[in-house]
Amino acid sequence: MTVVGHDERAVPLPDNGSRAWAGWRAGRTGVRLAARLSGWLALCLAATFLTYTLASLSFDPLAELRTTQPPTPQAVLDARAAALGLDRPIPLRFLRWLSGALVGDFGITVTGNDISDEVWRRAGTSLRLFAPGSVLAVVLGVAFGIWGAFRARRVSERLSMFGALVLLAIPVFVLGTVLKLLWLPVNNAAGAELLPFSGETTPGADLTGWAALGDQARHLVLPTITVALPQIAFYSRYQRAAMLEVLHSDFLRAARARGLRRGQAVLRHGLRMALIPMTALVAFSFGLHLAGGVFTERIFGWHGLGDWLLQSIREQDAMVVATTTLLMAVLVVVVGWIADLVLVVLDPRVRRVRP
Questions:
Q1: Which residues, 6+ apart, have CB-to-CB distance to 210 below 8 Å?
Q2: Which residue of 24, 32, 112, 300 pairs with 223 in a disulfide if CB–CB is 3.0 to 4.6 A?
Q3: What are phi and psi of 157, to 5 degrees?
Q4: Could you tell me where the DSSP H helices lie in the chain?
Q5: Judging by beta carbons within 10 Å of its beta carbon (0-12, 13-18, 19+), is residue 222 exposed, middle or buried?
Q6: CA 131 to each of CA 96, 136, 169, 329: distance values in angstroms, whole numbers, following the listed order
Q7: What is the predicted pLDDT for the residue at 140?
Q8: Fold adopted by 125-352
């Protein structure tokens, strides 16, 4: 809204209608984000129920008791089945487990231990292992992808893309083993374990303060590299393709026609557009890379959720399988929702709602 004065210059005045419209659009964006989050959480519950059902149909927690010599009395088997809830239908078992899980009580394992005492420690271990590698992968993957787009068809760029293809072709469990073998001569030459191969900390070491942090950091280096390298290769190739598309776009040529240098046009207009598809890719691929973290935990002896999941499958424990599935699914949902928030900031079109 403007008023034209005697000097014929337009003087802007507050436009309450525009402000109200902007506030309404922001409110609608928040409602859409909340609706997406609730839908994803419903998918988490559906996936957990499906996993719990399949595990309950496949597992027999009493198999070990049935094969003992002398045979276990039937009364003992019935009592154990009742303690584990095996005497009820699967949907009722799941609802009972879910009602407890919502208040932090995940039930007991087939060996009689409390799941709640173990699950948060395991989750913290997995988070310490996977979060640094994932953050490092996103940052370096984006950086290498942008660098590759600017140096397209040069020898250095072709070599980097070939290296990315090699990394993508190597399974995670093979990559972790190769890193151990490559670093072993370094440890042998130094006469000490500069970078340990197993565990979260040095067994028996009574360390505190900075010494304890340094010990944990040394144990974290090789697993972090194992987590990060495949993701860097994956993200860099996708970011390179997105950046090349932006560099050849009409809007970037128009920005340069207005007098901006290439670097200025890319920073002001192109970079944000190139990051938009990357944001969605990180959200959708996070679950895939999280599955690779299961093997990383096993290779490097980290007792996190992935290691616990494999152990629970071996012990035929449906409750632990459901608990780890639920936590991993919620983690994927949280990452996806954060990606949605970033997308709202990067892309104004997402915030544009027609009246």
A1: none
A2: 300
A3: -70, -40
A4: 16-58, 63-66, 74-83, 90-101, 115-150, 155-169, 172-190, 209-247, 250-257, 262-265, 271-300, 305-314, 318-346, 348-351
A5: buried
A6: 32, 8, 23, 15
A7: 93
A8: MetI-like fold (1.10.3720)
Q: Are 11 and 312 a contacting pair, CB within 8 Å?
A: no
Residue indicated by tokens 């449906």: 318
Taking residues 78-98, report their average pLDDT: 84
Structure tokens at 217: 């950091």
Cα–Cα distance measured from residue 198 to residue 219, given in angstroms and rounded to the nearest whole number: 7
pLDDT interval class at 18 (50, 70, 90): low
What pLDDT is attached to residue 86?
80
Domain coordinates in residue numbering, the chain: 125-352
Condensed to tens digits (0 to 9), the pLDDT of residues 74-86 reads 887 788 788 777 8
Whole-angstrom distance, CA of residue 184 vs CA of residue 190: 10
Cα(141)–Cα(19) distance, integer angstroms: 39
SS3 of 66-130: HCCCCCCCHHHHHHHHHHCCCCCCHHHHHHHHHHHHCCCCCCECCCCCEHHHHHHHHHHHHHHHH
191-195, 228-232, 265-269 — which is least confidently predicted?
265-269
**What angle (nearest 5°) sits at the alpha carbon of residue 139, between those of residues 341 and 209?**
100
Q: How many residues does the chain have?
A: 355
